[in-house]
UniProtKB/TrEMBL annotation, chains A, B:
Family classification: Belongs to the peptidase M20A family.
Pfam families listed in its UniProt record: M20_dimer, Peptidase_M20
Amino-acid positions noted as binding Mn(2+) 1 in the UniProt annotation, renumbered to this chain: D115, E150, H428
Co-factor binding details: Binds 2 manganese ions per subunit.
Residue ranges of domain Peptidase M20 dimerisation in the record: 200-349
Site (Important for catalytic activity): H211
Name of the encoding gene: CNDP1
Subunit structure: Homodimer.
GO function terms (MF aspect): carboxypeptidase activity; metal ion binding; metallodipeptidase activity
Coiled-coil region(s): none
Protein's name according to its UniProt entry: Carnosine dipeptidase 1
UniProt keyword annotation of Metal-binding present: yes
Length: 457, 457
């Protein structure tokens, strides 16, 4: 089974180490080979290399551009996917080896199973089905597949810009399948995603650690500064405390509220499948709005402090706090960068600390929103009715899929997100999985979508 | 050179993993062998095993009890030392391999070089010198050497209690050399140490992490709770905010202030050697008092959050914050435990978080203070005059050497701390070292001390 082979490749793009980069190159080569065997015309575009903040230089895995069919009477659908994954550390909560696809009760566990190797293969499987039946493809198909999505799609924008009038010139529609449903069984179509701005705040006394017995009591300790800085960002109700941060958030209309009311979301089931006792909000509408149309701030962790089991009496000499703000229409990445930096500088200056603080935004990704009356939205709805016998939930996604916004802005083509995975797939967390049922029905859905696109185009 | 061989053994007692435990057992066996070859009568006491919070059980390395000489007309001095070390991670700031003793400009770099393998060997070398010269030892010598000091001297107290009327019955004085001078060149004698209380505060939503895109905005995020809890502990001037924490701190007398004034401490040199731009206090007296006679609170780090380089958009599902409070006379460990727990419960309850919080004190060590007019204090002063040609600084230590307090309370014998290492040795931090000069003069000092003890006893 191909998904098993693909999951076995440790294509982690987040940890900037040579071993994982090699795995990424291997992943892209395997995918290019699969597409070639399908009869596609495949180009692997050299993406050069990446300069890291520490001076290290790492090669960027190639982007695959592939084409299958070139009939001018047919519509052309371009599928975007990524084959890199989030870090996965066996032992840290994983019940199975994250890089060995393991089926338990109809669930296929493995890093990348749902984000995004499974959906990429479902699309390939749908194309293969037409090939196997010796049927003509109802649409021309293009693929753009990258290996740096989890690290911010490094250098991809430049490539899309360059290919705007070449590879993308014949493309009518762009499909992405890189998010999840909001229920376990009901399919969905996604018309908007949040952006993201990722911040690092470094506090440094010196580059060496201290012993808390020898120095505790006389130092401006970097961890005390950092904890105060991180503690100034968000209150216990989830409200972000950075001044001005809500200024550009789109005003809420009555019409928009109605779209949330129409959505099926069983809060009880959602809580159970998430294994969360209590959310910040009690109604379906509030929860959806705080996932989709309001910004959120999460503190991810601290680099440079003591992070292992046991008790170490260390005063870390320099520490880096990491947090991010999910952005919504019509927040602006560079305005947010300024607001956060100014706020942290304010808080820090009030502490009169002798340490050095440096704030940097290492990733800035725009939010995206689409027109849900475009042809391919209607085609996707009809395909879902055919395969699942139900209307889809029309949803947004709280995650960032910056490529959607990018395609819209650069290529000026309609973008739709057709997720395949269930709400409890655990993308980015331990024990990521895709259900066997979702994987197979998803393949059928893409095949039906090709047929509907041919009719509507 | 024996110090090189001893440093090469990765006897890390802090990280509770089998590999390091095996190294600890090897370390104790090597030391027992060295003492046996010196002619000592050596017993390696089986210490049983240790139950960890996660249910794991690990064996505790044996404690060495050794005796050399049994002349009832002579005094008996017992030397305490430990051969376990703090964790050391090459790459994380170490310029040389921490487990390869490396000499650079007269400095011997390596984990354990100054804490505490070097001083233990200096004592052994002093004894060897008398042996090599075929001279009678001026005093009877006993050794108690353990391998769990950095992990809180697990099970040692029970052993000392048990040996009170056996191994310790003939002991007149106890010497410990497990701390540092407060200057680069001037020796010191230590008559007090701070205690320590190490806390873990766990905040849990669920045992799996979340993706910040999928859940950011609707969760009581454990990191937000934890950062608020840690931020409530100490202000930017180093003042501890736990109610009642200063209640039992010994009142400051005029006489005590005078002892600080008499101490030689070049603040400029101290700052330079520490590579700290600015301390919390500007005078010698304030700095000494906040290191020795006032409590301090340090935040060490967070377990379970994202701690690696790069950017990961994770919401950690459960996190453990680690901090400790250094205790001074006459603070009480169990009172402090109650105060801290109550304070954190207060702060947490005000957040109305749906997460679970658990506070635990995993280590509680009493402060210690001695009578500086005891015989062995006078002998140590005279030996220092002989070897170094100067009066020692009479100091306390901000670090915890719980064994000092324990010997005083259980064995009822006078305890003295005679440090050998310079202020910039970097115990517990990266690039720990002992100066070759300190190591050799320290050996002479111990030999001179034996002779002075024989005279004064």
């Amino acid at each position: 089974m191909t998904l098993k082979e693909w999951v076995a490749i440790e294509s982690d793009s987040v940890q900037p180490v040579p071993r994982f980069r090699q795995e990424l190159f291997r992943m892209m080569a395997v995918a290019a080979d699969t597409l070639q065997r399908l009869g596609a015309h495949v180009t692997s575009v050299d993406m050069g290399s990446q300069q890291l903040p520490d001076g290290q230089s790492l090669p960027i895995p190639p982007v695959i551009l592939a084409e299958l069919g070139n009939d001018p009477t047919k519509g052309t659908v371009c599928f975007y996917g990524h084959l890199d994954v989030q870090p996965a550390d066996q032992g840290n909560g994983w019940l199975t080896d994250p890089y060995v696809l393991t089926e338990v009760d109809g669930k296929l566990y493995g890093r990348g199973a749902t984000d995004n190797k499974g959906p990429v293969l479902a699309w390939i499987n749908a194309v293969s089905a037409f090939r196997a039946l010796e049927q003509d493809l109802p649409v021309n198909i293009k693929f753009i597949i990258e290996g740096m999505e989890e690290a911010g799609s490094v250098a991809l924008e430049e490539l899309v810009e360059k290919e705007k009038n070449r590879f993308f010139s014949g493309v009518d529609y762009i499909v992405i399948s890189d998010n999840l449903w909001i229920s376990q069984r009901k399919p969905a179509i996604t018309y908007g995603t949040r952006g993201n701005s990722y911040f690092m705040v470094e506090v440094k006394c010196r580059d060496q650690d201290f012993h808390s017995g020898t120095f505790g009591g006389i130092l401006h300790e970097p961890m005390a500064d950092l904890v105060a800085l991180l503690g100034s960002l968000v209150d216990s109700s989830g409200h972000i405390l950075v001044p001005g941060i809500y200024d550009e958030v789109a005003p809420l209309t009555e019409e928009e509220i109605n779209t949330y009311k129409a959505i099926h979301l069983d809060l009880e089931e959602y809580r159970n499948s998430s294994r969360v006792e209590k959310f910040l909000f009690d109604t379906k509408e509030e929860i959806l709005m705080h996932l989709w149309r309001y910004p959120s701030l999460s503190i991810h962790g601290i680099e440079g402090a003591f992070d292992e089991p046991g008790a170490k009496t260390v005063i870390p000499g320099q520490v880096i706090g990491k947090f991010s703000i999910r952005l919504v229409p019509h927040m602006n990445v560079s305005v947010v960068e300024k607001q956060v930096t100014r706020h942290l500088e304010d808080v820090f200056s009030k502490r009169n600390s002798s340490n050095k603080m440096v704030v940097s935004m290492t990733l800035g990704l725009h939010p995206w929103i689409a027109n849900i009356n475009d042809t391919q939205y209607l085609a996707a709805k009809r395909a879902i009715r055919t395969v699942f016998g139900t209307e889809p939930d029309m949803i947004r996604d709280g995650s960032t899929i910056p490529i959607a916004k990018m395609f819209q802005e650069i290529v000026h083509k309609s973008v739709v997100l057709i997720p395949l995975g269930a709400v409890d797939d655990g993308e980015h967390s331990q024990n990521e999985k895709i259900n066997r049922w979702n994987y197979i029905e998803g393949t059928k859905l893409f095949a039906a979508f090709f047929l509907e696109m041919a009719q509507l185009h």
